[in-house]
Amino acid sequence: MTTPADIKALLQHSAETLTQWKPTLNDERKELAFSFWSRLLENGKAILLLSEAALVNEAMTIHRLSIEHFANMVGLLKGKVSPEELQKQAEADLPKQARYIHEDDIKEPTLTTENRERLQRYRDSTEGNPVKDPGVNAYNLLHACDLGFIYLTYRSYSVSAAHSTILSALREGDPTKAQDVLEHTKDLLTLAMAFVRETST
To answer: At a CB cut-off of 8 Å and minimum separation 6, what does 196 contact?
Structure first.
C-alpha cells in the first residue's frame, strides 16, 4: 500500500534527477518534456497536501491534470508529438476562446477599452486564417504511446471530480478513494521516471 512517505520519496528522487539532467539538455523537445515533468512533480506535491486534508475530489482533479502533463511529456520523449504541434494546438484553441470573450463582452461589457482593442486586433489577425486543429490531446497521445489504460483513470476522474457534472455535485469526496489517488500518483511518477531514463541514456 502506497503511503504519503512513498510519494514524497518519489518526488524527491524525481526532482533530484530533473536537477541533474536538465542542464545537459540541448534539445527543444526534451527541454519541453522536462518542463511538463516539472509540472507533474508540482502536482504531486499538491495531491499530497489535498489528500492529507481529506480533499479527495480535489486531489483527483489535480491528478487528472497530471495525466495531461504526463501524456505531453511522454509524447514528446517518444517522438509522438513535437513542440510545433503543441504550439499549433494552443493556437487552434485561442480564436474560439477569443470569440467567446468577445460575445460575452457585447452582451455585458466587462473589458477595459484597452483590452477590448487588443482582443479585436487579435481577432482581426486570426479571422480568415484559422489554424488547423492538430488533434493533440491526452487520448491520442496516451494511445500513441501504448498507454491507453491510463486514459480510463483520466475519464473516470473527469466525470466524477474534475468536471462540473451531476455526478461531481452529488458525489462527496470518498475517503476510501484517497488511497486510489495515492496509488495512481505513485504509478504516474514511476512511469515518468522510467520514460526519462529510457530516452535520456
So the answer is: 17, 21, 34, 37, 77
